[in-house]
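Backbone shapes recur. Consider a single case.
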Amino acid sequence: MTTCSHEGAPSLIDVARRSHVSTATVSRILSGKRKKNDATQLAVRKAAKELNYLGNHAARALRRDQSDTIGLIVPQISNPFFAALAEELENVVNAAGQEMLICASHMEPDIERERITSLLERNVNGIIIIPCDERQSVEACRMVGQVPLVQVDQRVDMEDCDWVGIDDRQAMRLIVEHLVDRGAQSLAFIGSSTNNSSARDRLEGFNEQCARHRLPTRSEWTLLKDYSVEWGREATRSIISSSRRSSISMPDAIVCANDLIALGVLDALRADHRSVPGEVMVTGFDDTLFGQLSEPALTTIAQPVARIAQEAVRLITLSRNANPRTYSQIALMPNLVARDSA
């Protein structure tokens, strides 16, 4: 067995020696420039695999001033909506012959800036970001400079940046109208703290619709913290406790800012022996698989993740090729999915 010519990562020379061809031949085959599929190509690819040769992608990227890679930064990979959107984005990017590098900011603006720096050092073709904070993420987005940047779902206020997502206020209109049509006369809202645009727009959209339909609102029925199952449980227990202390009825429906919160709400209502939708209707947001499989199945808002992904990648490509550049703010229409919980 031929050994590597030096310690460390295998080189192009090592692949050439193992496959008994010239380094020029190896370079043409591994770069895809040699189209003929023959014994030589098979031998070179087998040698590269055996040696675990990956090539110097960074060097090639610098020579071409591109890396065939698009970076994606999400707030939380554990959030099922962000995970579904990341998967759809990767599918679209791969179909375009590129690769996607995915990382998480963990809802921390400082980490978000670190992720931006890391992606820029890798010379990515563009960056798609779900900003974690409506105010503090501006600095991170400004760091991108001339590299194409597209915000998806959540956004910060920047004139020279594309955004694609859904109309969250329209989504709240669909939800509230659906509940009113089913006889709801009092609504509670459980959501996330309003440090991101989606959380703020969903809360404001909910309040607008309550005013429009002249629905009474109570401060103890508007609870904000984070997008988690546990917060859904905690907030629902608070609503139940408040109802008992003040001898007022439970709200007819609880509107949740995402499906994770709604799952926690369903669990807390079940633990208190309250029927859904008999006593309290519940709605979610995002139409995740968990909401589809819950008991009862969750009425929710479906986001067009495939369309969001297609538009985001299209805008990245447009930004690289257009000069001068105009910027787009694309708000796609949401879709209400009515199931058993409402």
User: Anything to note?
Assistant: The first helix runs from residue 12 to 19. The CA atoms of residues 129 and 172 lie 24 Å apart. Confidence is low (pLDDT under 50) at residues 1-7, 56-65. DSSP finds 13 helices and twelve strands in the chain.
